[in-house]
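Q&A log
Question type: sequence-to-structure
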Amino acid sequence: MPPPGGIFLCAPRCRNRLARPPIAARTATCPMGRRTLMPTLQAISTRLARAEAALAGAMIAAVLAITGIGAITRYFGAPLLWADEAAIAAMIWSAFLGASALFASRGHMAIELLSERLGPGGLRGLSLAADLVVLAAALGLCALLWRWFDLPGLIRTGSAEALADESFNYIYLEPTQTLGIRKVWIWLVLPVFALGSAIHAAALVAGDLRALRRHA
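Response status: OK
Response body:
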């Protein structure tokens, strides 16, 4: 399958060679009888991806429902003012959740310029490099979001207003235009996406390292 993120280069013809084995095949124990970290991490990634995909699908259904109801009420002269903003918020959540879920299966688009010229060993190395880049990007995003959401600062100051007065960080005070809620409830999908992507990338890196050791 193509590498996560679509930013590195893996040919579609290589997908079967790079695809991860089924969950049952990845739950082997180490010689001492203990489960290894790698199968556990991959199992967590797989279950998380399923949950993300299900929630993304629910958000898409919500977009369709809200849009349809909004069109009907507009036709009868009583439009729902919040419908458009609610549909946009649901679409944002579906996009980020779906993007995170696709990392687990290397389902993002990719360019096959380089991978089609590599042998099996080169493909394994390329897969590891791509997954490491995605992992670093996800962890970097986690760090940025930790600073932006500033949960320790919110706890220390005791309120969103006090945090804004102290640091000029208005993340918890920004209102939506028509929904009557704060925008932070929409922006919460960003840490969910970043953390989920980091888990998926870490699981892929663990699988890449195992493949390299097996063929060393």
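Response note: Residues 37-214 form one domain.
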